[in-house]
Amino acid sequence: MPEFKDIQAAYKRIAPHIHRTVVMTNKSINTLVGASIYFKCENLQKTGSFKIRGASNAVFSLNDDELKKGVVTHSSGNHGAALACAAGWRNIACYVVTPQNTSGFKKNAIINYGARVSYSDALLPSRIAQTEKIIKETGATLIHPYDNEKIIAGAGTSALELIDEVKELDYLFVPVGGGGSISGCAITAKNMLTGIKVIGAEPQLADDAFQSFKTGTLQPQREPRTVADGLRTALCDRTFNIVRKYVDDIVLVNDEQIIDAMRLIWERMKIVTETSSAVTLAAILNIKNDLKGKKVGAILSGGNVDLKEVLTLL
């Protein structure tokens, strides 16, 4: 389990390579919720998502022997693109396993950043099997999209920047997929602010984290069918233990609420976010009566969208 000092060290390591993304507020959304919402805009980050934070932290932590053999991961899009980008910065090989149903837009991004791509089924066991095959063939170092201390520490730097800028928050909302982002952000938030509540936002149609959190036992993934494609992964032992220790609650939102929240961000804030990113605002709107008069942080995790695909949702 990473500690706050690991997140601080990660920030020093990656700061020369990433954007310190803007924090935005919006008067009409604040009025709608009855609270002050501070959006950390990782949709404006390099590679279009927060994933470059963890990927660059991991890649710039490799030793010389690891660098020679390159890196490998499995990803539904954003982590694969981020790892390929970070690997390119160090001129090393990058192998990415991605599900067949991954957005064509995100597949192209992974390839364009220089990764060698192979494909798997949507469920996690298929991803893992293909990744292990590549490791045996190449000796590449696995950089797991969330079950990795360096990835979690890097992801936590988004909350570090947010809190450093805003100073005080009552709540922090973070999307939940595999749990890497919320793990790093929760560790950061609980170490920087006394009394802050960290809330996960998860799609109802990919609710393994919610079920795990409520039962106290890590639950298996069911087949995810949500429009929030970046959140179709499941918690691992590492992230589950961090979530249990640092996260106060997980709020479920349905696909209609996610799409409505994404539309609201596009229309009111004039920025592009993906469905997986909009879950934070959807969750805020879902429990807005509990947030009256509060200062609320929200991680907008990414903005990588296929416009042809997303416009059919809107």
Structure description:
This protein has 314 residues and is α/β, with parallel strands linked by helices. The protein contains 15 helices and 10 strands. The protein has helices at residues 4-14, 27-33, 51-59, 64-69, 78-89, 104-112, 124-138, 149-155, 157-166, 180-192, 208-215, 237-246, 255-269, 275-286, 307-313, and strands at residues 23-24, 36-41, 71-74, 94-99, 116-120, 141-142, 171-175, 197-203, 249-253, 295-300. The longest helix is centred in the middle third of the chain and has 15 residues, at 124-138. 53% of the residues are buried.
Record field, number of beta strands: 10
Biggest β-sheet description:
6 strands, mixed
The run of helices and strands is: HEHEHHEHEHEHEHHEHEHHEHHEH
User: Strand order across the biggest sheet?
Assistant: 1-2-10-7-8-9
What is the second-level CATH architecture of the largest domain? 3-Layer(aba) Sandwich
Share of residues in strands: 15-25%
Quote the CATH topology of the largest domain: Rossmann fold
- Low-pLDDT windows of residues: none
Mean pLDDT: 95
Helix tally equals 15
Structural class: alpha/beta
Tell me the overall shape.
globular
Domain unit count: 2
DSSP helix fraction: 40-55%
What is Rg?
Answer: 18 Å
Tell me the span between the first and last alpha carbons: 40 Å
Q: Mind telling me the CATH class of the largest domain?
A: Alpha Beta
Structural features:
10 strands; 2 domains; 4-stranded parallel sheet; alpha/beta; Rossmann fold; 6-stranded mixed sheet
